[in-house]
């Protein structure tokens, strides 16, 4: 069943054996659909509504069962072959570079988090801007696909989107209309935007969600070792919400991440992604971007099934592409 066909079936009013007072409390707290309940989880629901945690667990279980019945989620205990056949038809977004698409197994995967990390100037934001255009060149389930861009570093530039669209012979104005932008001014604002994003995703047929960058505000606000634990817990909670958004809404989530240097590293590359093990365990795919003269290197650092290898790509008028031979 397509998302469009199941949209009415995921309304909060379709929950069975739930009283009108509970439904009113959920709606007033911003939970508009069953998907919102699954994405946010029992703890968030209890915190936002004041409903007892035991009842919130029951609500989430009922919501998950409903999504299984209408085909948004798989039923428990299915064969690996069923999963394999379903993954072969999974929607992917072309990056603009054939080399990078090949590294990713065909493009940016939906229902997954793809993390891009590297130092400044390695092409992270350029890839994100290009994806905002290429996602509109894909025909997802017969509908025009759109992008949601969450900007935390003030690096989003509509001029770049327009120039990439023009270079690809696409109308710039139409392209810009199909990119929804939200600027996050601090970590709390960023969390609110991401929590509210499922409603925007369903309303505008979003197939790509970009967060550029995921840890910028947290690094600026949580300074020192005394705040490290709280920072990591906040990031961990946010990443799990993003992963559930990717799975529940059937979209691709792309995160950019900063790097930090290890001064005690005597051999090898001293740079590593920020966020520690929290980021490493939450991202489905991790790509490390580096400079190589006029070109850029993308290395698959972590993946459930890809081999660890490197490819070359280039920055150009069309956003990103392959180096000229």
């Amino acid at each position: 069943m397509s998302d469009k066909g199941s949209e009415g079936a995921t309304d909060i009013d379709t929950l069975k054996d739930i009283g009108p007072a509970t439904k009113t409390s959920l709606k007033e707290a911003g939970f508009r659909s069953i998907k919102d309940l699954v994405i946010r989880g029992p703890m968030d629901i209890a915190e936002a509504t004041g409903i007892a945690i035991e009842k919130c667990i029951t609500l989430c279980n009922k919501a998950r069962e409903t999504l299984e019945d209408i085909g948004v989620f798989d039923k428990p205990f299915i064969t690996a072959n069923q999963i394999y056949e379903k993954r072969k038809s999974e929607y992917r977004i072309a990056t603009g570079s054939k080399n990078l698409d090949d590294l990713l197994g065909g493009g940016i995967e939906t229902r997954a988090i793809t993390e891009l990390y590297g130092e400044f100037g390695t092409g992270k934001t350029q890839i994100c801007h290009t994806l905002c255009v290429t996602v509109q060149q894909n025909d997802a389930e017969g509908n025009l696909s759109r992008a949601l861009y969450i900007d935390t570093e003030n690096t989003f530039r509509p001029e770049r989107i327009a120039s990439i669209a023009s270079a690809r012979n696409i109308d710039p104005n139409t392209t810009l209309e199909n990119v929804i932008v939200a600027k996050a001014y601090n970590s709390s604002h960023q969390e609110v935007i991401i929590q509210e994003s499922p409603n925007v995703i369903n309303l505008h047929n979003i197939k790509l969600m970009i967060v550029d960058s995921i840890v910028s505000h947290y690094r600026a606000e949580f300074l020192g070792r005394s705040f490290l634990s709280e920072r990591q817990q906040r990031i961990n909670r946010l990443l799990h919400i993003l992963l559930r958004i990717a799975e529940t809404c059937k979209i691709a989530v792309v995160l950019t991440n900063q790097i930090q240097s290890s001064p005690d590293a005597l051999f090898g590359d001293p740079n590593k992604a920020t966020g520690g093990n929290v980021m490493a365990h939450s991202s489905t795919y991790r790509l490390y971007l580096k400079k190589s003269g006029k070109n850029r290197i993308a290395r698959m650092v972590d993946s459930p099934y890809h081999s660890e290898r490197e490819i070359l790509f280039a920055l150009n008028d069309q956003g990103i592409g392959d180096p000229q031979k």
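Residues 90 and 110 are 7 Å apart (CA to CA). The longest helix spans residues 228-249.
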